Amino acid sequence: LASLAGLQYLIREPLISSAEKKAVILLHGVGSNEEDLFRFANRFSEEFMVISARAPHTISPGRYAWFELSYSAAGKPVINPEQAEKSRLQIHTFIDTLAGQYEIKKSKIFLGGFSQGGIMSYSVGLTFPQNLAGIFILSSRLLPEVKPLIRPREELKALEIFVAHGKNDQVLPLTYAHDALAYLQTLTDKISYNEYDMIHTVGDQELTDLVNWLSAKSI
């Protein structure tokens, strides 16, 4: 495992060279680790460097979180806001450091993740949009705590956004995607929104659509 800015990560170097380096950074969900999304590395275009980061908080051996999570009596997720904020800033620094270390323009870096990793991708991308080409959000939600920090429309206009969610998601129901979409549409028109007949998981068609979106947006 390599390490930058206090985060450990797996890396697949680009398999073919391109005029300018491109990178995809993957953030896993709560209770998982950097190997989870890295198993999809070969689905991404060979010109991309694929990086999968491990979240900083250990739940148990091999299981990590970007912030601690519990549920209210009504079944609503309750976050540790201090940890979520610290992870937001740490991922921002990680991207900054990575761009320098591997000599990648920030306009060629895409950040995305599943579930809690998607939450962090929203949190970083919408508050530091100048640091990224785009974000992709898989089966996730937008934290109310982050809304006051989101940059104005003018600063978000270059940020590409891919949102995908399963219609049968019982962990983070589809309404979270609808709520985030309604909010985002007041800020930007650069959104690709997709729903799938699936539960709280990463789907095959979803991955295909994501890869096609990345190829179209990374020219």
Show the helix and strand layout.
Blueprint: E1 2-4, E2 7-12, E3 22-27, H1 34-38, E4 48-53, E5 57-60, E6 63-65, E7 69-71, E8 77-79, H2 81-101, E9 109-114, H3 116-125, E10 134-138, H4 153-156, E11 160-166, H5 175-184, E12 191-196, H6 204-217
Parallel strand pairs: 3-4, 3-9, 9-10, 10-11, 11-12
Antiparallel strand pairs: 1-2, 2-4, 5-6, 7-8
Helical coverage, percent range: 25-40%
Kindly provide the radius of gyration, computed on alpha-carbon positions and rounded to a whole number of angstroms: 16 Å
List the helices and strands in order: EEEHEEEEEHEHEHEHEH
- Which second-level CATH architecture applies? 3-Layer(aba) Sandwich
Structural class: alpha/beta
How many β-strand runs? 12
**Proportion in β-strands:** 25-35%
Q: Which stretches are low in confidence, meaning pLDDT under 50 for 5 or more residues running?
A: none
Reported by name, the CATH topology is Rossmann fold
Task: Please tally the helical runs, counting DSSP H or I stretches of 4 or more residues.
Answer: 6
CATH C-level class? Alpha Beta
Task: Give a short account of the largest sheet.
Answer: 8 strands, mixed
Shape: globular
Mean pLDDT comes to 97
Explain what this protein looks like in three dimensions.
With 219 residues, the chain is α/β, with parallel strands linked by helices. It has a single domain, classed as Rossmann fold (3-Layer(aba) Sandwich), CATH 3.40.50.1820. It is built from six helices and twelve strands.
Any key phrases for this structure?
219 residues; Rossmann fold; 8-stranded mixed β-sheet; two-stranded antiparallel sheet; 12 strands; 29% helix; globular
